[in-house]
Structure formats: structure tokens, C-alpha cells
Amino acid sequence: QVQLVESGGGSVQSGGSLRLSCAASGYTYSRYCMGWFRQAPGKKREGVATIDSDGSTSYADSVKGRFTISQDNAKNTLYLQMNSLKPEDTAMYYCAARGCGVASYNYRGQGTQVTVSS
């Protein structure tokens, strides 16, 4: 059974940093492509960053230069380092997994809340 568990969220002031973690289990982690998504109240869910099995990454324009996605295959863990946080980064953050040959993310965690105050 695939399980994704996020942690590391919290409340910070504008300009602060947080590192989110996503512990994966129940599948061969290295064969999946991973991503971070977020959803703020009243807004659509948006992709934040993705990382493929070969380590290639992509970012939403709104977080480029501030957020870094990474993974530790030995620990089956995905990370999102978030620096220079802004109030508009406030959202529930989710990690998700998909087979790398599949377009849609099949699995998603429960999320971790990030709140940035000005």
C-alpha cells in the first residue's frame, strides 16, 4: 500500500524558511516521479515543483529561485526547501507520486500546512 506522509510545515514570518519532508513507503520509490503541490483556501491546487527519477527538476515561476526540491532515494524521502517565504506561499502543501511513464499523479499525502505572516 502506497503511503506518503508530509511533515515540516508550520508558521513563519515573511522572509523565513521551512523544509518540508515527504516519507514514502509501499512502493519502489526510485521508480516514481515526485512532486509538491499546494492549495490555498478558495484557490485551485497548483504545482510547486517536480523531480523525475533521473533527478531533473522543474518549478512554478512563483517559487523559482526560492524553493528547492530534492530527494534521498536511500531514505525514500522527498524534500522541499523553502526560503524567502512570502505570505502568498501560505497553503496546504502536498507531496504526490506517479509512475514516470504516467501523466497523472496517482498518490498524494494528507498535506502539511504552511502559514507565512507579514
Count up the helices. 0
The tally of strands reads 11
**SSE string, helix = H, strand = E?**
EEEEEEEEEEE
Report the span from N to C terminus: 40 Å
The proportion of residues forming helix, as a percent range, comes to under 10%
Quickly give the structural class.
mainly beta
Overall mean pLDDT stands at 95
Low-confidence stretches: none
Percent in strands: over 45%
- The shape, in one word, is globular
Largest sheet: 7 strands, mixed
- Rg over alpha carbons: 13 Å
In short:
This protein has 118 residues and is mainly beta.
Please explain how this structure is put together.
The protein is an all-beta fold and 118 residues long. It contains no helices and eleven strands. It has strands at 3-7, 10-13, 18-25, 32-39, 46-51, 57-59, 67-72, 77-82, 91-99, 107-108, 112-117. The strands form two sheets. Strands 2, 4, 5, 6, 9, 10 and 11 form a seven-stranded mixed β-sheet that branches. A four-stranded antiparallel β-sheet has the order 1-3-8-7, with no helix packed on it. It is globular. The N and C termini lie far apart (40 Å).
